[in-house]
Design a protein that fits this description.
The protein is an alpha/beta fold and 372 residues long. The protein is 63% helix and 15% strand. It contains ten helices and six strands, in the order H-H-H-H-H-H-H-E-E-H-E-H-E-E-H-E. The strands form two sheets. A three-stranded mixed beta sheet has the order 1-2-3, with helices on one face. Helix 1 (8-39) packs antiparallel against helix 2 and helix 4 (120-147) packs antiparallel against helix 5 (150-179).
Length: 372
């Protein structure tokens, strides 16, 4: 089964939506910059800079999407999908730069204030910008969810947030006209802080994707459910999913089967499982490991007893991979302990002691497995 690029229709949708965002943000940036310079309003100018940053972000999204959808090659056999995460990091760096620069200018304006001069036309343009941002943000975010594009979802959310910030600029302008109290430099500080906050959050989100974070539990549960649908599977464990882009997920899983199955039956089962998971969820299972479950009564009783011992600890999440070699008198099992527990090693050591005491005739080989 070959890893193929994400759907071309998805790429076209992302690019088309990004171009719409670029056009709208460039127009808004131009109008706001003109209004801000004429009125002498640092808040409006910074809002224009924020729109320009959004336009540049959309440009990076387009470039990143184009590269990410290149056909896999010899150097990159799993495709180029992770480029989308790198482009998100570039966008976040751009946002941080814009936010810090805006913060410095706003503070300067507070220290050395100069009154703004708003006209009716200026207020109308700012109000129109708020409406435009709401419409753009709603459209982009909805499209991002439909095509599973984190970059578009982030851009849409950012646009909706920008609408709130532009609204605050409009309110500060109205307050100035009514009371002659200038708040626009302070509004500039607020805008700057929120731009920086958004940049930091996006940076950590992208970094987490590149490093490799836990998959969405709901998605993982769907994969396990698909595996468990096979009539020969008694249990599914150790599911590992690696993302090589929003549309490329590769994984592996261990399945427990009766020890009476033949190699031919296991091969047929693995093909069924891999085909079902790929067709239903687009996940390529590159490896399906096998745990053998003994069908004899003696081993079943040992398994039940070991399970009671392990699961009597509230920190334990699961026991699997249980196998007994009567000839060598060895007992093997994997134990999963919740990552939120600080003293995992200590709890595991206690479980091992209890197992050794409960089964003195066996050499207990327990493994502290990964909580994924």
């Amino acid at each position: 089964m070959e890893i193929v690029p994400g759907g071309r229709s998805r790429e076209k949708t992302i690019v088309r939506t990004s171009f719409i965002g670029i056009a709208v943000n460039v127009l808004l940036a131009g109008f706001k910059a003109a209004v801000g310079l004429i009125a002498g309003s640092i808040a409006v100018v910074l809002d224009a800079v924020n729109n320009l940053t959004d336009a540049l972000s959309s440009v990076i999204t387009v470039i990143g999407t184009k590269i990410a959808n290149r056909t896999p090659d010899k150097k990159h056999p799993l495709g180029h999908g992770r480029v989308e995460y790198i482009s998100s990091m570039l966008i976040s760096a751009l946002m941080l730069y814009a936010g810090i620069t805006a913060l410095v200018e706003s503070v300067k304006k507070i220290i050395h204030p100069s009154p703004a001069d708003y006209s009716t036309v200026s207020l109308i343009i700012i109000a129109a910008a708020v409406v435009a941002k709401v419409l753009l943000g709603t459209f982009v975010k909805r499209t991002g969810k439909r095509v599973n594009s984190g970059a578009l979802i982030a851009s849409g959310s950012d646009a909706l947030f920008d609408a709130i910030l532009s609204g605050s600029v409009l309110v500060s302008a109205i307050i100035f006209l009514l009371t002659k109290v200038s708040l626009e430099a302070y509004v500039g500080v607020v805008i700057s802080v929120f731009i920086i906050k958004s940049g930091v959050e996006m940076l950590f989100e992208s970094f987490s994707e590149i490093v490799g974070r836990r998959m969405d539990p709901e998605f993982s549960d769907k994969i396990r459910a698909a595996v468990l649908e096979d009539p020969d599977v008694l249990g599914a464990y150790d599911l590992i999913l690696n993302s090589y882009g929003p549309e490329r997920v590769i994984g592996s899983v261990h399945v427990e089967v009766p020890d009476s199955m033949t190699a031919e039956q296991i091969d047929s089962m693995e093909r069924r499982i891999a085909g079902r998971v790929y067709s239903e969820h687009g996940v390529l299972l590159t490896g399906i490991g096998i745990y053998s479950r003994a069908t004899g009564e003696g081993v079943s009783r040992l398994r039940e007893q070991a399970t009671r011992i392990v699961m009597s600890h509230p920190e334990a999440l699961q026991i699997h991979g249980f196998r007994v070699d009567e000839e060598l008198k060895q007992m093997n099992l994997d134990v999963i302990i919740d990552y939120s527990v600080k003293n995992r090693a200590e709890i595991f050591a206690g479980i091992c002691r209890e197992l050794a005491e409960a089964f003195p005739d066996y050499s207990v080989n327990a493994i502290l497995d990964i909580d994924i």
